[in-house]
Automatic annotation (TrEMBL):
Transmembrane segments: none annotated. Residues 9-112 form the MobA-like NTP transferase domain. It holds the Pfam family NTP_transf_3. This is NTP transferase domain-containing protein. Residues 171-187 have a biased composition (Basic and acidic residues). PANTHER family: MOLYBDENUM COFACTOR GUANYLYLTRANSFERASE. GO terms for molecular function: transferase activity. Residues 162-187 are annotated as: Disordered. It comes from the Bacteria. Keywords: Magnesium, Transferase.
Length: 187
């Protein structure tokens, strides 16, 4: 029986946050920044190294966007390059989905090589580094990247979709938190 590859995590923090109005990574969710909640989630499921990919300094090793607003595949490729040979498998998470739970990720983490993503929802994904397409382009749509990496498509429970999709607008955030105007910081 072989040892599973070491797991790392890439948190995609790029993007302009135009629809949200403020930097999604720095927004408070239950008193903690979204990026910190997502990093904690990654560590709780076994990630030994967690990096951010995109703009902003968040206290994590960072893979900057190759050009401003390069897109999510650019972030994945930059994160993979930063992780180098430290890990054999990566969990890719979006910073705007800080309400994902460890049990939501279980079917992806349990998938055999080359990794997995949910049907019709490319993030989050788990990816063996050996499966990164050699001809991947930074401007590819995530769905093309998932297809070319031959990731296993896991059936998606519709109840999970709001958590997996996250919040790109204040209204989506309100729905996820159940609080008008988003979660309040502790006093």
């Amino acid at each position: 029986m072989s040892t599973p590859p070491t797991l790392g995590a890439i948190i995609l923090t790029g993007g302009a946050s135009r629809r949200m109005g403020t930097d999604k990574a720095a927004q408070l969710w239950d008193g903690r920044r979204a990026v910190d909640r997502v990093a904690e989630l990654a560590r709780s499921v076994g990630a030994t190294v967690v990096v951010s990919a995109g703009d902003g300094e968040f206290g994590l090793p960072r893979a900057p966007d190759p050009t401003p607003l390069s897109g999510p595949v650019a972030g994945v490729l930059a994160g993979v390059a930063l992780l180098g040979d430290q890990v054999g498998r990566v969990l890719v998470l979006a910073v705007d989905a800080p309400t994902i739970r460890p049990e939501d990720l279980a079917p992806l983490l349990a998938a055999e090589a080359p990794g997995a993503a949910f049907e019709a929802q490319p993030l989050p994904m788990v990816l063996d580094l050996a499966a990164v397409p050699g001809d991947a382009q930074a401007d590819w749509p995530l769905r093309r990247f998932v297809e070319r990496a031959a990731l296993i498509q896991v059936a998606l429970d519709p109840e999970l979709l709001p958590r997996l999709r996250g919040a790109n607008t204040p209204q989506e955030r309100d729905r996820l938190t159940g609080e008008p105007d988003g979660p309040k910081a502790p006093k």
